[in-house]
Amino acid sequence: MMIDVFLIALLLSILTGNIKNVLKYNYKGLYLFAIPFVLQLLPWKEILVPLSFVMLFLFFIWNRNIPGFKLMAIGAVLNGFTMSVNGGKMPVWEPTLKLLNLDLDFKHTAFTEFSWKTLLADYIPVYLPWGRKFVISVGDILVFIGVFIFFVLKPRFQTQPSRVPHES
Q1: d(Cα 14, Cα 136) in Å, to the nearest integer?
Q2: pLDDT tens, residue by residue, 77-102
Q3: Which contiguous run of DSSP H or E holds residue 51?
């Protein structure tokens, strides 16, 4: 679903002309954005998944002045914590999987009873108009909102004139 959200937000930013604003930011630690996704594909998930989320969190925190990144950081922390306490996999509520007729992939594990370890798991069903179905978490929702804020909202750069009247 992240790809869908990213592409929709990117398309909206192109259509609204806000894409030029996305390119103006001075990103810190940009390498920390790509590496975590590679780490999650490797074995040793109990170690590498938490490490990957720490790297993402650092990237978002170092760039917290960029609109949307704080929400993405919070969502990443929630998802990273949930995956970390569940052996490096995101738990998905089995009844929702059955409802949507979905199979698990290598990054997910099914659960049937809620506990403190599954409180922030994937249990929210999502149907997209083009036929794709997903189960998402509260952390995912925060990340998605952050992505839309980042791509779609017009940022306020420091080079803009101040709105505070000057005293004479």
Answers
A1: 26
A2: 999 899 889 988 899 999 999 999 99
A3: helix 45-62
Helix (H) / strand (E) containing 52? helix 45-62
Map tokens 């007729």 to a residue.
101
Please tell me the predicted confidence (pLDDT) of residue 161. 40
Do residues 112 and 95 touch, judged by C-beta distance below 8 A?
Answer: yes
- Convert the pLDDT of each residue in 24-66 to its tens digit: 888 898 888 888 878 877 887 778 878 888 888 899 999 999 9
Q: Give the single-character DSSP code of 66.
A: S
Helix, strand and coil in the chain, % to nearest 5 = 50, 10, 40
Rg of the chain on CA atoms, in Å = 18
Q: What is the dihedral of CA 56, 60, 61, 65, to 10 degrees?
A: 170
Place of tokens 């000057």: 166
Nearest-CA neighbor of 89 among 118, 56, 123? Answer: 118
Question: Is the pTM for the entire model greater than 0.70?
Answer: yes
